[in-house]
Design goal:
The protein has 11 helices and 2 strands. By secondary structure, it is mainly alpha-helical. Strands 1-2 form a two-stranded parallel ribbon. Helix 6 packs across helix 7, helix 8 packs across helix 10 and helix 9 packs antiparallel against helix 10. The mean pLDDT is about 85.
Length: about 180
Amino acid sequence: MSLILRIQKTENFNKRQYILKIGIVLLSLTYVFCMLYLLFFLRISNRAGWMSGEAQKIGYWHTIWNHTNLIPFQTVIEFAWDFRRAHKILSFSFINLAGNVVMFVPLGIFLPYYWDSMRNFRKFVPVVMLMVIVIEVTQVLTLTGTCDIDDFLLNTVGSCIGLLLFRSICLLKERFFHGNRNSED
């Protein structure tokens, strides 16, 4: 509902702003669908493998436990070690670590765009942390991924980078275009 309210015509309506807002809404919806696909649906084949193999042998809850990492930086260190041994910039390890950060940068841009209260770090960080926890737990419970504290940390950092980018863009817009708060919406 908030998306629709954000693109309604205002007193200072102009066609260019309206088209830009619709573009941002479409971009954010595309981001949400891509994230759902990457985080859950792309990994559906994992579920079939786990259910027919490991989960049937040792049980569902043991499988969940085996695919949960609660030790901070364990995966990051393992991937960094793998990356160092492989000497490849595009190794799986690098793509996984960078991807966990980069995939969540847009979240840090879209949340404060739609909800002004998310422009404050003290309000933004707990919301993002809760969202990432829900994603991680859902992935492991549905057997479509692992629950990893390092993913949680990297996803949160990515979102915070996005928020910093959003705030920087707002400052630049204000400074160079002398825009007021109403023209930003």
